[in-house]
Every structure is written in structure tokens, then in C-alpha cells.
Amino acid sequence: MADGAGQMATDAMVAKSSASAPHILAMARKAIRDPLVAFMAAGVALFGGYSIIERAQKPPVVFTPQVEQAMVGEYETLVGRPATAADKARIKRDYLAEELLFREAIDRNMHLTDGETRKRLVDKVRYLIAGAPPEPSEEQLVNHYADNLAQYRAEPRTSFTQVYLAQKPADAALLLAQLNAGETIAGDDFWLGRAFPRYGDSMVRGIFGQPFVATLKAAPEGRWFGPVRSPRGWHFVRKSESIASAMIPFPAIRDQVRQDYMIAHSNAAIDKALSGLKEKYDVEE
After folding, report:
1. What's its catalytic activity (predicted)?
2. Does residue 136 contact residue 262 with C-beta atoms inside 8 Å?
3. What confidence score (pLDDT) does residue 101 get?
4. CA distance 166 to 230
């Protein structure tokens, strides 16, 4: 009797389930046709897709066993003893803090807006692209020197003496006559003094400005002239020597030629890579 009652209960449940199946299917079809349900389903799908994309773009910060092993090993080598549990906890904490701060810096676009950060990244990529150039042979250096002779000319130089005045003198003609008569004029203190032996044009330009250089080059030697105005004040000047531009012999400038050659070698590799990078990134010229 018990077995018969159990079988009857089972048959009743199956019959009830079979009877309710069409009802459930009808409810499902109605729900699918409901605009609100469809909207919610689309929202769930979009959110799920966005989460997947976000996770791909921003991989999680994970302190992997490989990272831990490397950092603990480095720490133990540095301190000369096994790392304790506290040491390992601190290593993990410091790693995660540095990684989070680095990612925050990237998220704030500091690599795009901070000039020093940009420069370091650019220099790093330059090195990764170009690598360390091979040591040039003597023949290559001589050829580089011969192909770039204009870079290895000594600039014109001038030797001169000055008397500096902070303010324009009211009796300029009298002072000039006294100087040319061999008299001494005290003048004001100048931070570089009075004598400028064999100064290159670029040095004179940096101190006194280009108009001073032009006046100095056009002036005769052995006579005082002026006063010449500069951004620093007023100057009576006597030119004593003019040295024309001349080639610098290769042995005297070999180290500079070597440096220039290696820079040119690296720049050629960078230029070659840039054409591919322009295709990779959207460049508007």
C-alpha cells in the first residue's frame, strides 16, 4: 500500500508539472514581449559587455607569486638575510601602493602633461628602438668628419678690453678721448672684469648681445670706441685681436666626432621607426 501511495503521489506531481508547463511558457513569451523587460535585459547585456571591456583595458592589480619571489629574493640579497613574514607583508604593501599610484598617474594623464615624465618616457623608447650604437671604426669617424666639415669649424674669436659704466655717461666724448690718450678710467665693477681674451662670437653674444658683437667685429683694432650699449649697461671697448673661423683638426676633436656619429646612428634608426609609428597612430600634419 505504501508503494502504491508513493507512486500515486509521483504521478500527481508529474501531471501537475505537465499541466503547468504551457502556463510557464506563456508567461515567458509575454515577458519577452514586454518592452520594460526587454530594456532591462539589454541594459544587463550592455553592463556585462562594458565590464568585460573595462577589465581588459584595466587589468587587475595582482601581487603574483612570481613577483613576490623576485622581490623577496632581491630584498634578501640586499639585506643579507632571509625575509621575515613582516618583511614579506611590507614588500607586498609597498608593491601594491607603487602600482596603484603609477596607474593613478597614468589615469590622470601625467605622462601627457608632465614635461619631465614625457621626456623620460621618450628617451626610454628612443633607447628601446635604437639601442646602443656599435662602436665606430676610425675610418667611419674620419668619413663622418669629412662629410660634416661645417660642424667642425672654430667660430671667430676676438680679444678685447672694456670699461663698463652702469649708466650712460654725460661726458662720453671726453672719456673716449682720455682713454685713447692712454689715461685710465675707473668705470663701474663688471662681474666678468675688463679683459676678454679670445672670446668666441657665441660667448660675446651671450654676455653682451648681438648688436655688441656686430659693432665689435666692425671696429678697428688698437683704438677705443664707444660707448656701446648692451642689456647690461654702457661699454667703452678696445679690440686687440681678431681670429677668423678655421677648421678644427680631426685629432683635436675626435671625441666630439665620435659622439656626433653615434647620435646620427641612433637618429637614423629613430627616423626609420617613425614612418611605421605614423601608420600606427592617427597623425594630422
Report:
1. [protein]-peptidylproline (omega=180) = [protein]-peptidylproline (omega=0)
2. yes
3. 84
4. 10
Rounded Cα–Cα distance for residues 267 and 259 (Å): 12
Instruction: Encode pLDDT of 120-176 as tens digits.
Output: 888 888 888 888 888 999 999 999 999 999 889 999 999 999 999 999 998 999 999
CA distances for 57 relative to 23, 61, 279, 282, angstroms: 45, 12, 22, 20
Looking at the DSSP assignment, which residues form a beta bridge with residue 225?
A: 237
Whether the pTM exceeds 0.70: the reply is no
Q: For residues 60 and 103, what is the distance between their CA atoms, to the nearest angstrom?
A: 11
- Residue type, position 237, single letter: V
Residue 234 forms beta bridges with which residues?
Answer: 165, 229
Domain definitions of the chain by residue range = 2-56, 67-126, 138-150+248-280, 156-244
pLDDT (tens digit, 9 = 90+) per residue, 127-138?
888 888 889 999
Residues of the chain with pLDDT under 50: 1-6, 8-10, 12-19, 21, 37-39, 41-42, 44-56
**Closest by alpha carbon to 232, among 266, 208, 256?**
208
Half-sphere exposure of 120 (CA within 13 A, CB side): 7
What's the chain's Rg over C-alpha atoms? Answer: 41
Residue with cell 648681438: 210
The one-character DSSP state at 234 is E
DSSP-derived secondary structure for 178-203: HHHTT--------TT-SEEEEEEHHH
- Other CB atoms closer than 10 Å to residue 144's CB: what's the count? 19
**156-244 carries CATH number 3.50.50.60:** no
Count of CB atoms situated within 10 Å of the CB of 238: 19
Looking at the DSSP bridge assignments, the partners of residue 160 are: 196, 239
CA 259 to chain CA centroid, Å, is 21
